[in-house]
Amino acid sequence: MKSLNLMKIICPTKYFSFYITSNSKKLNLIMIPEKISFLFVLAFFLIVFIQSGLDKIFDYKGNLNFLNDLLKIYFSPPLIVFALITVTILEIISGILCLIGIVDFIFNNSTLIGLLGLITGSIALLILLFGQRVSKNYDGAKTIAIYFILAMIGIALA
């Protein structure tokens, strides 16, 4: 097991930084509030999209029945199936990209993969929002709008 030594902590009002060393590598992180916020946004969408995507996979028939009841007067059943599969794939991809984005930011100070995760998730949210608005489910659309606003904040922080 490699030993980690906390060598330096600086906590001025604007940011803090720390160095962690191991036997093979030095990791230098400078954490300003915007970057900390970005990590929390990624963690939020990691949880939201992985849970939602897995729910759609494990309860596919239940989700499909719900969507058919909600949208059958507006869209054909094949289109509903296509939308469900598309949103499920986008949510899983987004959740995985958010997870990789967290790791990539911590170890490489890169926001690219996390940004791609948020963009992918935003596309899924827009598809869901469209269905909610067409079906006149305005309460559901409000919830999606809140998620979308948080995704836009995360994209701005990247």
SSE layout:
Layout lengths: L4 E6 L5 E6 L4 E6 L1 H26 L1 H12 L5 H32 L3 H23 L3 H20 L1
Antiparallel strand pairs: 1-2, 2-3
Helix pairs in contact: 1-2, 1-3, 1-5, 2-3, 3-4, 4-5
Key terms:
single chain, 158 residues, mainly alpha, 2 domains, elongated, disordered N terminus
Sheet with the most strands?
3 strands, antiparallel
The span between the termini is 33 Å
Share of residues in helices? over 70%
The overall number of domains is 2
Strand content bin? 5-15%
As laid out across the biggest beta sheet, the strand order is 1-2-3
> Are there runs of 5+ residues with pLDDT below 50, and where?
1-14
Rg, rounded, reads 20 Å
Number of strands: 3
Order of helices and strands: EEEHHHHH
